[in-house]
Specification:
By secondary structure, the chain is of the alpha+beta class. The protein contains 26 helices and 23 strands. Helix content is about 55%, strand content about 15%.
Length: about 850
């Protein structure tokens, strides 16, 4: 064997063995300890839909959010009045929602009222008491402002928690509003739940305050004396400490606790420290935060980059207080209090304080994501089962494997030996892809599996392209080695162009998308890169080895579709008219979806969540069957296995008809007479797809389309890029329109299916375009219409074979995958049919019309 070929197979063997090592823990959990210790211990992580995970219910303290807003408004009022020459003093009020201020004299009352009415519409004067020497004014937030804060505190907390979890690295969490002041968070495959809980619940209120070193007070002595006299308990809180020592510390000061960790022993000391109560700068001034290593002991610290306004404030603070200590306070605890050596410009600061790397990383995350507007409290923490249900996962897995086996058999029958080589390549694709996902600890979910299905389809398509090129080269009378090399060489750029355009889409979805869109993008991106390697190189090395061994004398292929001569351009008026109807229906569906008038799933519409407690373990499949028998639709089911809890989410449109829990309870009694289900709770829930997620998804899609148009303009012509984008939009809208007409539910699974078919359609279109470009150079005497027709006819066999192989897998999912993924599979079936149609009858005619029937130069 030639040395170069030996190295190629050695490299392939290395990749295969490494991949098996990476994937083994996923399929064989009882891997020996020595293997986990010395080789690899991680495996594939599964998402909530496939394995379940941590289920948290958080309660947002909206009352505290109102009080926080009131305190900020009071401080702003105090500063505004000071600029007017009026000094006010805050007084303690018996009502926590009330702001009580004392004014210097009665004559200033009118001016204060004028400032409040003019500049502070969010405040209302509740009472004025001018009976004493220093009149007092009782203020409160206006009812409208208070209602606004209460409503937005939960929404803002939800988005901040979502950002923290995204940065923490949890793939595809479920985060949804429940009731008036609760948030449900579900996290798959969490290994350090305590850290996750701390990260989610941390308020992250960052403040910069001056240390009062001029007070010359021995806090330690004062505290010891108060404890000895019984005025202060030994395990005192900061609140108790300030209340007991109120008359012994300067007015305008407050005692805080500074945590100090001994870097050698790890012992934590709580040291009382006296600070000026005035906050000089808050976390709003922080633009971003990152972990850095430095200092005397090379310890982690958090480097802050400030906003332009924050930089100006920080420069002013440090310039005016050189030689003083500046305390950095996080959630009421002083993390560090360094001495200001000089004025600091440039918009950079740092927080140090004996952090572990994990603590510093988490602090950077919460500072980047922003502070919660109000404290959150965890009121429930349980483990839930897979949202798809174990029954659906089992059926989906079996049907998917069956479909793949059918495709492999078909490839061997149709392409003989070459088909077998293609099957091996697809299996290699799958092993390599699983290994990459395990290596980067990606979370595998149903959208991720959809990405895998698409990459398998692209893998088969790449091999079909090569084999059809081999057939053409063989028909020209070339010998065995020449037509094999010709097949690979001529298919090379077609395969690259198809994969690069899909990769652009995947990267845009990964960079700008969130949740299930990102999960889909991860598997698709990895799959595309792996598929390029196996299709273009790995299979070719096999042929090189077979030729070296003289193991093959010829290659034979079956042929279902022979040479055709269909006038596709001549039929463009009919096809474009059909497309216009499909697109118009899709636009109507899209508008209705945005209006909330379509059959939206609970993911988009929100609705009601009913929680049941069963008297013994139950099977989710039986519950699903019981609800189906009662003709109940629009439900999402989940279980808490150890607690025997059933969670039923009902979408809003269903929730408005009849008594929800009564209908479900009746269905459970009728379908499961041996079980007793008791209602534990019923609450309103919001959509899991927030406005922010929708906005990011739209941005991702628009950027990907711009990238596709740009790449195809560079490789082909701007008209090809625009036509590909229009054809992709056409396919998505067509499927959306059919779903709308059939009144099928549109949920996150369907969105995943639409993304999958967009990638499939794009690949199909680019392959046809590549042949048009090739024939433009080859047949200069033919008209543009003749070149397009010839190109499409030449690619018709490949188009039909690719569509057929992908349809086999998807139809298997449709018929045998179970009720949960039935509509998902149906959307993919429609997508493959429409995508095949558009690559032939839509994309090419658009290019023809763009150039007014003349070949582009």
């Amino acid at each position: 064997m030639p040395k170069a070929l030996k190295w190629k197979f050695a490299f392939l063997a290395f990749l295969l063995i490494s991949s098996v090592v990476l994937v083994l823990p996923s399929f064989y959990p009882n891997t020996p300890q020595w293997f986990k210790k010395y080789i690899y211990q991680e495996g594939l992580k599964l998402g909530l839909d496939l394995q379940g995970g941590m289920h948290l219910i958080l309660k947002v303290d909206v009352d505290q959010a109102v009080r926080n807003a009131a305190q900020l408004a009071a401080q702003d009022l105090k500063d505004a009045l000071k600029r007017q020459g009026i000094t006010i003093v805050r007084r303690k009020s018996d009502n926590p929602d009330e702001i009580l201020i004392a004014v210097p004299n009665k004559s200033s009352l009118e001016k204060i009222k004028e400032v409040i009415e003019k500049d502070f519409p969010n405040l209302v004067i509740k009472k004025i008491d001018d009976s004493s020497r220093f009149p007092t004014i009782a203020l409160a937030l206006s009812p409208k402002e208070e209602q606004f804060i209460r409503e937005h505190a939960v929404e803002q907390s939800l988005e901040i928690i979502r950002n923290r979890i995204d940065q923490f690295g949890v793939t595809e969490p479920v985060i949804v509003r429940q009731g008036e002041d609760e948030i449900v968070v579900q996290l798959p495959g969490i290994k350090d739940p305590k850290r996750a809980i701390k990260l989610i619940g941390q308020t992250a209120q960052l403040e910069f305050k001056l240390v009062d070193d001029d007070a010359n007070i021995d806090l330690g002595s004062l505290i010891r004396k108060a404890i000895e006299e019984g005025r202060l308990p030994r395990n005192y809180t900061v609140k108790q400490l300030n209340a007991v020592l109120k008359g012994q510390i300067p007015r305008g000061d407050k005692i805080y606790i500074m945590k100090q960790v001994d870097s050698r022993t790890g012992r934590v000391r709580n040291i009382p420290i006296l600070l000026k109560d005035k906050t000089l700068m808050t976390g709003d001034a922080v633009k971003t935060a990152h972990v850095r290593i430095g200092g005397t002991y090379n310890e982690p610290y958090v480097a802050l980059e400030l906003t332009d306004r924050g930089a100006r404030i920080f420069e002013k603070i440090t310039g005016e207080n050189v030689g003083k200590r500046l305390a950095i306070v996080l959630d009421g605890v002083v993390r560090s209090a360094p001495v200001i050596r000089e004025k600091i410009g440039g918009g950079h600061a740092q927080i140090s304080g004996s952090f572990t790397h994990e603590e510093a990383a988490d602090l950077a995350i919460v500072l980047r994501a922003g502070a919660l507007p109000a404290p959150v409290k965890i009121i429930q923490n349980v483990t839930v089962g897979p949202s798809l249900g174990r029954d659906s996962i089992r059926k989906g897995l079996i049907s998917g494997i069956a479909g793949a086996v059918f495709v492999m058999i078909f490839m061997v029958i149709y392409y003989r030996l070459s088909g077998f080589i293609a099957d091996v390549a697809v299996l290699l694709n799958l092993v390599f892809l699983m290994a990459v996902l395990a290596l980067f600890q990606a979370t595998l979910t149903l959208p991720g599996i959809a990405g895998i299905i698409l990459t398998i389809g692209m893998g088969v398509d790449s091999n079909v392209l090569i084999f059809e090129r081999m057939r053409e080269e063989k028909a020209l009378g070339k010998p065995l080695k020449a037509f094999i090399d010709g097949g690979y060489d001529k298919a090379f750029w077609t395969i690259v162009d198809a994969h690069v355009t899909t990769l652009i889409t995947a990267l845009a979805l990964f960079l700008f998308g969130t949740g299930p869109i990102k999960g889909f993008a991860v598997t698709l991106s990895a799959g595309i890169i792996i598929n390029l390697f196996t299709a273009i190189y790995a299979t070719r090395w096999v042929y090189e080895w077979l030729l070296y061994k003289n193991a093959i004398k010829d290659l034979s292929f079956m042929q279902i579709v022979g040479k055709t001569n269909i006038d596709f351009i001549g039929k463009r008026h009919i096809s474009l008219a059909i497309s216009a109807v499909l697109v118009l229906t899709g636009i109507v569906a899209f508008v209705q979806i945005n209006r909330g008038a379509a059959n939206l799933g609970v993911d988009f519409a929100g609705g009601t969540m009913v929680q049941y407690k069963a008297d013994k373990p139950f099977a989710l499949e039986k519950v699903r069957q019981a609800l189906a028998k009662a003709n109940l639709k629009g439900y999402a089911l989940q279980e808490v296995p150890k607690e025997h809890i059933l969670i039923v989410r009902v979408k809003k449109s269903v929730a408005t008809v009849g008594d929800i829990e009564e209908n479900i309870t009746k269905a459970l009694k009728a379908g499961l007479p041996d079980y007793h289900f008791t209602i534990e709770s019923k609450t309103e829930i919001g959509s899991t797809v927030s406005k922010e997620l929708r906005r990011k998804a739209i941005i991702a899609i628009l950027i990907s389309l711009a990238g596709i148009i740009g790449y195809l303009a560079f490789r082909f012509n701007i008209s090809f890029g625009v036509a590909a984008a229009i054809a992709t939009f056409h396919d998505v809208l067509a499927v959306l329109g059919v779903f709308y007409l059939l009144n099928k539910e549109i949920n996150l699974l369907i969105v995943t299916a639409l993304l999958t078919l967009a990638g499939y359609s794009l690949t199909d279109t680019v392959v046809v375009f590549d042949r048009i470009r090739e024939n433009l150079k080859r047949y200069r005497k033919l008209s543009f219409a003749e070149i397009i027709n010839k190109s499409v006819n030449e690619m018709l066999s490949r188009t039909i074979i690719t569509s057929l192989t992908t349809l086999i897998v998807v139809l298997s999912l449709y018929f045998f995958g179970g009720v949960v993924i039935h509509d998902f599979a149906f959307a993919l079936v429609l997508g493959i049919i429409v995508g095949t149609y558009s690559s032939v009858f839509v994309a090419s005619p658009i290019v023809y019309i763009w150039h007014k029937g003349k070949a582009p130069k």
